[in-house]
Task: structure prediction
Amino acid sequence: MNDTTNMGLLGQDGEEEEQHGVQYLTFLLNGEQYGLSILSVQEIRGWEMVTRVPNSPHFVKGVVNIRGNIVPVFDLRRRFGLPEASYTKETVVIVVRAGKPGEERSMGLVVDAVSDVLVVKDDSISKTPEFGAGVPTENIRGLVTDGEHMVMLLDLDSLVLQDNSALDNDAA
Amino acid sequence: MSIDMAQFHQVFFEESFEGLDVMENGLLNMNPGEADAEEINSIFRAAHSIKGGSGTFGFTTVSDFTHVMETLLDEMRDGRRDVTSEGINVLLASVDVLRDMLTAAQDGGDADEERVKASRADLDRLLAGGDAAAAESGGGDQVEEASAEPAVQEPIGWKIVFRPHQHLLRTGNDPLRIIRELEELGPLDAECDTSSLPALRDMDPEESYLSWDLRLNAPVDKALIDDIFEWVEDDCDFAVVPVMPEGFDPTAAVPEPDAADQVEPAKAAEKPEIKEAPPAVERRQQQGDRRKPAAKSAGAKAGGGGASSIRVDTGKIDSLINMVGELVITQSMLGLLGEDFSIDKLPRLREGLGQLERHTRELQESVMQIRMLPISFTFSRFPRLVHDLSQKLGKQIELKMSGENTEVDKTVIEKIGDPLVHLVRNSVDHGIEMPDERVAAGKPETGTVHLSAEHRGGNIVIEITDDGKGLARDRILDKAIERGLVKEDDNLSDKQIYELIFMPGFSTAEQVSDVSGRGVGMDVVRRNINELGGSIEIDSEIGKGSTITIRLPLTLAILDGQTVVVGEETYIVPLVSIIESIQVKSNMLNMVAGKGETFKLREEYLPIVRLHEVFNIEEPKATEINDGIIVVVEAGGRKCGLFVDGLLGQQQVVIKSLEANYGKVEGVSGATILGDGSVALILDIPGMMRLAADRDSQAGLAMTA
Result:
């Protein structure tokens, strides 16, 4: 579905980016497709046992050791209030690094499965429709269409900020 | 060519601050009346480097100011000025001003202009006064003919002997450019000496073989010429001699530069003929190995603005590289072994793994070593502090220091400074008596404060000892009773009484002085030290003096821990906070107000904190007190019994930050990685006690609500 020859370019080159758009890693969560900028993805790992952090928000699964760094793992289903799913061998953790420059944090996101890499041009992103208070959309940057599916592009930076404040509130 | 100079600022500031420390130390070591050439030279060099650097980076106010100091130092060095205590004090004050100016420049702000002006005025006054004094004493051991003549007769030009060292070109300097610059000052005759030029096939084009005799036919200021040579003076021999009108023969005054370029500069300067030369003749040569590659390579990596940097001994880095090399060899050996492994190769595999383990441990230790700095970084400020304080208070105090080379973690160095300052001030202000009191008490007039550091079993022990009047036990007790900290009939040991001075709001100073005695202090000192995982103790004898002992862990990055298990989870309890671990029977338990569990341990009732309740751990194996184990822990003077399922073992753990990627977790100070790669959290005992207390009070509220 994509021009695979361009996969290696990662859209770092400004010109490339203009022509081919930004690459997004898409993943499945409760049957829906989500995407996040591939530049913020550090690695994709299988689910493994985490160390629980006492008195943490419910969406924090715990912390793991990633090459000597202690990285928290968040359950995205819980984060977005989706129904719980059991962890299978397809369950993966996407390790991302995001946040304000100088304050980047690494975190692992538990998702149902990763699916693809999608090249998205900026002008093909449509705005998230307004739903009212019932549907939380503040972490969705926009929507794109990939063939039949709709893909929700996540805004990781806002996710990091919110989680921080959630943690701080929790600690207080 | 445009180079972004800003990238070098960090290094410049670091070097300048180091230079200031050198100046300060040197000045403190100087005794009025005797001019120690070595000492003055090192001060002069430091000032000179700061001047040069600040000029290059465009901090002209700094370089102008330093120039005045330099002039004064120069006169002291040449013996044209006596080293007076006034001179030293003015110079010390100007070092402070200079430090302010540099700090301001570093932060992009402005220095306190009034202060700069005042200090500048002091220096100028001293300079002016000094000249008069020099003129008066002119007939002394100064050489009359030399000092008299140039004073009245302006030179009509200058003769410059310029002998670049062979490596001059490698330092990025070009003799041609220097000569061109000289030419701009006036008509210049140049004579090139090609005698040391080797045959073409022996010649290294990167070496400089030529030297010059130059004659500048213009009566310019000598400082202008010096400025041109400023950056090469360490890499060449040069001499500037004024050319006098009417038959004054300058060549006689110039010491013949030796054919070999590597003349010992000091010896040349001591040759008797130099006395005949006018004082303006100066030979500055390579002065030690300042501004050398070490500093430059540091510049390359320190680009990142405000990021904190650390200067590492190259020896440490070399040993690290060696060890990584070993590690790579072991790794490739194991790789080879794994390619076609059969069971008979098991012994070799074991051996390889053993090697790997050894190298990894060595590597870890060496990496830790990088963070270690000698405690002299902290101690170096005390001579000045004691000097200033004792002058202000009119006391005579000698500061002794030992163990300055004891290495401590960088974080400790940064955090221990303020508490130590406070303690030393206390010793000077409260401990040491006035000279007449001391004499009356039969002690030497000069009091001694001894600052020492040493390694003592996995700890750093810092001791501050004074031979002053000691702590007034009864006054402390009276005051504590007055403040309601202890009861009158409490039977306290001396040690317990001394401990009282660490309580908040406690000061026995009869008079609150500028220096200390405001009652904030000792409690803060103790808190700071506790934060570093250390402890503080005080010992004292009336009339003899007191000793304050600070114990700090060697490094903050590694900690001895006891692994405990609760349910499926593993936690690390820092060994320093564990007193003992015991099993308690349920009949030893008492309930306070029906829910607070306590047990009695040697005349003390300790509350029980159940870890699984505080941390909401699911499915603990032990809920009955009989099934688990109580770890008695202490923090901040409070004790409690921590109830866990069981103990696993003791091990050293490397502390990892939880906050880097996550956030602060109440009751947890960090995390570590266990042998199997999984993560275990390290308990923060004081935080956990707070958490347990909050829990109890919330539970209490819930019950009353």
Summary: Chain B touches chain A through 26 residues (CB under 8 Å). The first strand of chain B starts at residue 157 and ends at 164.
